Amino acid sequence: MTRCAETNREIKHLIEIKEQINSSGMIIRITLNDGRKIDGVVRSGRNGNLNGEGNYYGEITIETEDRQMWSIDYLDIKSVANIWKLKAAEYERLGLITIVDYPSS
User: Fold this and answer.
1) Residue 57: inside a domain, yes or no?
2) Which residue range(s) make up the domain with 42?
3) Share in percent of the chain as helix, strand, coil (round to 5)
4) Closest Cα partner for 4 from 55, 45, 43?
5) Domains contained in the chain, number
6) CB 62 within 8 A of CB 30
7) What is the CATH number of the domain that holds 87?
8) What is the pTM of this model?
9) Under a CB-based contact definition with an 8 Å cutoff, are residues 92 and 33 in contact?
């Protein structure tokens, strides 16, 4: 379950993580605070301020290569890396993404 930030440091962390995850369809590697790493394609994200009372929160849902869905609280994330160039072809082969090559105008 998503937790609300309790300190200014945690609020800053939420903002920093949100800025690193800028769109659905990104392929990212998340490093958790405990050192585990999870690779996946971004499916959705939620962030905001509950009840407008300074209760800031954030979470992301990613789908892994084995089609598991993970919802991860931003407060549990140490860092995020964009691994699109590393994994896009493999994720397309697995049917997790479709790469569309629009003609240039």
Assistant:
1) yes
2) 8-93
3) 25, 40, 35
4) 55
5) 1
6) yes
7) 2.30.30.720
8) 0.87
9) no
Q: Which two tokens stand for residue 84?
A: 């699109």
Residue 37 resides in a domain: yes
- Distance, CA of 75 to CA of 35 (rounded, Å): 14
For every residue of 24-37, DSSP letters joined together read TT-EEEEEETTS-E
Residue among 36, 1, 38, 4 nearest 21 (CA): 38
Q: Do 74 and 60 form a contact (C-beta atoms < 8 A)?
A: yes
**Rounded to whole angstroms, how far apart are CA atoms 96 and 27?**
10
As given in the structure block, the two tokens for residue 14 are 């939420």
- Per-residue pLDDT tens for 59-96? 999 999 999 999 999 999 999 999 999 999 999 999 99
Structural domain includes residue 17: yes
Q: Is residue 103 part of a domain?
A: no
Contacts for 104 with CB less than 8 Å, ≥ 6 apart: none
CA pair distance 82, 59, nearest whole angstrom: 17
